[in-house]
Amino acid sequence: MPHIAIISSSVRTGRNTHRVALFFQKYITDNNLATAEILDLKEYNFPIFEERFKFQEEPLKKTIEFADKIKAADGVIIATPEYNGGYPASLKNVIDLLYEEWHRKPIGIVTVSAGPFGGAQVMRALQFSLWKMHAWVVPAMYPVPKVESNYDEQGNPTDKEATEKRAKSFMAEMLWCIEAKQKMETAQ
């Protein structure tokens, strides 16, 4: 069974992105699609890094743990809010921290906004950064508009049927990419 790391990238007080990260963790495990764990950047509370992980002489224990979890994951879902058309510094910080760990890693992008467009602008910005890191960005994306009215604080969607229908399609693409990568690695 594949293992998926879900990065909850918002560190703000009163954050809403974490609601969607919780939803995906529940959805994945409840449907027996994979094992899933949330890597909560608020809990990690990383400092601003001055050097890439592989060049750090004495990396923090939590930095080593985070890098190991990304490397060990078969795929990563990044749940990010849209801040002024971009993604939060907390996420940029950990993307730039790693390099080899992102290489050919299937990554699904989940964007969240309080407005009606679900973080459409942040998708491009994040996608471009991940491509530069040689990550494999999954073609299906999952934008979440009006997050506060669509998910409660525990990650339960207000319209379970419609939300799970969208999640099923997104996860099918994510799992296909994970399986394709595993087959390619076995063939080499």
From TrEMBL:
It comes from the Bacteria. Residues 3-144 form the NADPH-dependent FMN reductase-like domain. It holds the Pfam family FMN_red. SUPFAM superfamilies: Flavoproteins. This is NAD(P)H-dependent oxidoreductase.
